[in-house]
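Encode chain A's predicted structure.
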Amino acid sequence: MIVQNMIHSPQMIKNPSNLCPLYYFNIEVNNTPMGRIVIEVRADVAPKMAKNFGVLTTGEAGMGYKGCSIFQCWEGESVITGDFELNNGRGGRSIFEDSFFLPDDTKLLAVRGTVGMRRTQKRHDNLGMVGSQFRIILQEMRGFTGIFGHVVEGLDLVEKISTYGDNAGKPTKNILISKCGKL
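Encoded structure for chain A:
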C-alpha cells in the first residue's frame, strides 16, 4: 500500500535500510469510521520504543492497540491512547518482561505531529518508565521526551479528535482504534 500526501518533519529522515516503518490506525467516533492516522516510527534512534510500538500495533504478542479508546484529548494540544488494559490511562504495559521500561533518549523535539510514549503515573515513583500509552502532539511541548515517531497522514483527523475533549481532557464521544497494523 502506498501512502500519499505524506508530511515529513525535518526530524524524520527516510533511510534506505527501512528503519522508519509506517503503522496505520483506523479511527471510529461513536461507531462511525472517521479515517486513518499513519505514523512513521524512528527505529534508528528509538529501537526499544519502536519495537514495543510495532508489536502492540500489529498485535503479534496477543495484546495491543486494536480496540483502544482515546482516553484524553485537549483541543489543539494532544490526544492520548494506548491503554489496552483499562482504557483510562491507568493501565497499559509494554511487550517487555518487566512490563515498563526507560524510553530511548532520542533527543527528538516534541513538536506538532510528533508521537511520544507517555510516562507511567504513580506506578513507578516517577522513574520515568513507559509502557504502551502514547501521545500525538499538536503543539510544541517543551520538556516532553520519549518522542519516537511522527504523523505522516491524518494529522487533520487528530486535530478533529482533539476537539472532542472537555476542559479536563475527557472525551465527549467514544473514540476508538478500530483496526491497526503495519503498512
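The first helix runs from residue 47 to 58.
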